[in-house]
Write a structure and sequence with these properties.
This protein is mainly α. It has helices spanning 18-24, 30-46, 54-60, 65-78, 89-132, 181-191, 203-218, 231-246, 249-254, 260-263, 266-274, 279-284; strands at residues 80-82, 85-87.
């Protein structure tokens, strides 16, 4: 992949909302559709404004007069001139948002690495303290260290299965790391930029998020392995949960009120996990 500003990976795809596109381009000819598409592709690929005149014709390989006329028509309707260059306002907005998401993803990755480094330094001292601790007879052995470090959320049918009982009815576990509210909110913003941003996060929302976090860190899959055993695996699990939401056209485009607070409520959380909002399920309903 090409590298953008400040070492950021350049955008190599863009979202095309078909309904919006057809609504705004319903009067275009076939040649104009082609010109518009090629101009957007170059704009997103280079993340720079387009040239004008003969240089633009050469860039788009427009050899015929009809092709050049199509380029001029599209330029007038969908592009604006800034300092002798052409740019599209929607594309500029999407590029700016992609840059913001990239920065947030980098921050999340750095935060995870910092947590791992801190634990790697602290862990030897913790194990040494346990090894010299006096034995306590007639005590139930501590098996918490025997938990598997398997991946957080498996793909396929198995990931759609839920344990029996209420999501909030979770057994106590002293070793659960505290819920990283800020990191999870940043992860939500990075994974689901099309949904409303978190402006205010009250105690009710924080309590719901803690309950979901506790469930992920204490529940097990159908094969008996834990979903997550530490903060890094918990964040990875929620990242894939948000990916599942992003793949739902209903949740991201048609439903009103879908935000982080809605997604972490017990009943809504369960429905997303059960696949109630997948594109195929919504079509059948």
């Amino acid at each position: 992949m090409a590298q953008g500003d400040a070492g950021r990976t350049a955008l190599n795809f863009f979202k095309l909302y078909i309904g919006d596109y057809l609504r705004d381009t319903g009067e275009l000819t076939l040649a104009e559709h082609g010109a518009y598409t090629m101009m957007l592709l170059h704009l997103y690929a280079t993340e720079k404004p387009l040239p004008m005149g003969k240089e633009l014709y050469r860039l788009l390989r427009a050899e015929k007069a009809s092709e050049r006329a199509a380029i001029e028509s599209v330029s007038e309707r969908f592009f604006v001139q800034i300092d002798g260059k052409l740019t599209n306002q929607r594309a500029a907005h999407e590029l700016a948002r992609a840059a913001e998401i990239s920065v947030k993803n980098q921050q999340i990755a750095l935060s995870r690495e910092a947590v791992k480094r801190a634990r790697s330094v602290h862990e030897p001292y913790t194990k040494r303290a346990r090894s010299v601790a006096p034995k306590q007879h007639l005590q139930t052995p501590d098996t918490r260290e025997e938990k598997s470090s398997s991946p957080s959320l498996r793909s396929g049918e198995e990931s759609l299965r839920l344990p029996e009982g209420n999501l909030t009815d979770v057994p106590p576990a002293d070793s659960i790391p505290p819920c990283p509210q800020k990191e999870l909110i940043a992860l939500y913003h990075a994974k689901l930029p099309m949904l409303p941003k978190v402006r205010v996060w009250n105690e009710a929302n924080a309590a719901a998020l803690r309950a979901r976090w506790r469930w992920v860190l204490t529940s097990k899959r159908a094969d008996g392995t834990p979903r997550a055993t530490d903060e890094a695996q918990g964040l990875a699990w929620f990242g894939e949960y948000f990916d599942r939401v992003a793949a739902s056209d209903f949740l991201t485009q048609r439903m009103r009120g879908c935000d982080l607070a809605w997604l972490v409520k017990a009943e809504n959380f369960r429905k997303v996990m059960q696949g109630n909002y997948t594109n195929q399920e919504c079509l059948q309903n």
